[in-house]
Amino acid sequence: MVTNSVTIAEGRKTVKRRLREATDDYGKRRTDQAKKRVEAVCPALLTSNDDLNYNQTDAGIIGWYAGQRIGHSCGPGGRGGKVGGKKMLTPVLKSLPCVTRYENNPVLTRHDVPYSCDLVFNAGVIRWKEGYAVAFRNDWGCSQAEWERGGRFKGTNIGLAFSPDGIHWTVEPEPVFEIKDEEILRAYDPRLTVIGDEVYMTFAVDTRHGLLGGIARTEDLHHYEMISLSVPDNRNMVLFPEKINGKYLRLERPMPVYSRGRDRFDIWISESPDLVYWGRSALLAGVEDFPFANDKIGPGAPPVKTDSGWLVFTHAVDRDMTRGKNGWEDQWTKRYCAGVMLLDSENPYRVLGICREPLLAPEEPYETTEGFRTNVIFPTAAILEQDGTVKIYYGASDTVTALATAKADDLVKACLAGGPSLCAH
Q1: Which of 108, 269, 341, 425 has the fewest CB atoms within 10 Å of its CB?
Q2: Taking the CA of residue 43 as centre, how many other CA atoms within 13 Å lie in the half-sphere pointing to its CB?
Q3: Global pTM value
Q4: d(Cα 302, Cα 314) in Å, to the nearest integer?
Q5: Using one digit for the tens of pLDDT, what is the confidence trace for 82-93?
Q6: Would you place residue 17 in the very low, low, confident or very high pLDDT band (cuts 50, 70, 90)?
Q7: What integer is the mean pLDDT of 332-352?
Q8: What is the DSSP letter of 292?
Q9: C-beta separation of 122 from 137 below 8 A
């Protein structure tokens, strides 16, 4: 057991200041000075392979160690081992105990799709008529064996399915959405939101000149009217399911590679009078707010309104360049976890609390050892049921769609226990 040299008792202000100092040093590449600050916060971060482990460390991981006692002695680097026969990455992350995975996961796979399909994931889900509807990403045209021989997917489209219970799905006979021309390469990662009597789909768009976020409107889930496309690079947009103070709101993840020098992406919020023109953009949460991330964070599912505020489900990524083959590719160095935060009901620019532990961490075989990119959990939809249960849909290993549940009250408590954002103003 590692006993950390910084504890919660030192006070949030001290920890916040040290985290910001360490982040500044990292960004300026002042490695020696930053190492000293890391060592002051938690000596356990500096292992025998100092440079490698430090370079995979940032303020988020520092915060994790600084605020807790971790039951292992390695830093954020390391290849991991096996526990109970399962391949484990380090540091070992666990899901919140209040979250329960559906026992027969996954709920949607390529075997459910009646047309060419290899990966079914990152799906948006809404209540629809007497049941549920899901719009899912479908990558098709390449098996694992073909990939490892140099093959690649032939295309990506968005499929549609319906369910009476949100668990058992019937997929429509053909895809319902696809964009491709000389400039646009593909559209993918749909999120569905009902606002009033209309349904909106946000999605990502790869083009020859950058990554865009799109918004479309639909009345029947089969036909879509394009409303807007962002400038590059922006992705992971989700809409709030109601207007607030007369404005539409969205969460998004801009991708400032040039100014940050690497993946270091955060969650922003913007508003619009008409879903076309967006402004009043503000930083909502940074990577350093999620102690189990050291690479990027971003929106996951559209926000869910509760009596205590807006529950926002996020993705949070830690990267370790020593990780080898994890899935089909020769090397996959990232791990995606699900996170959760709470925003003020009337002013979503105000963060009430952020859970400092993973909501869901990769633990089951369909999350850790099976699939295209293993150790990936990406929350994409959340449905609040009348009994206070939240259905949380997520992509697992970029391959299948899975389901977990939790009580909204437990999620709110976990957010409030973590306190507000360290970086948003």
Answers
A1: 425
A2: 3
A3: 0.83
A4: 9
A5: 544 456 688 899
A6: low
A7: 97
A8: T
A9: yes
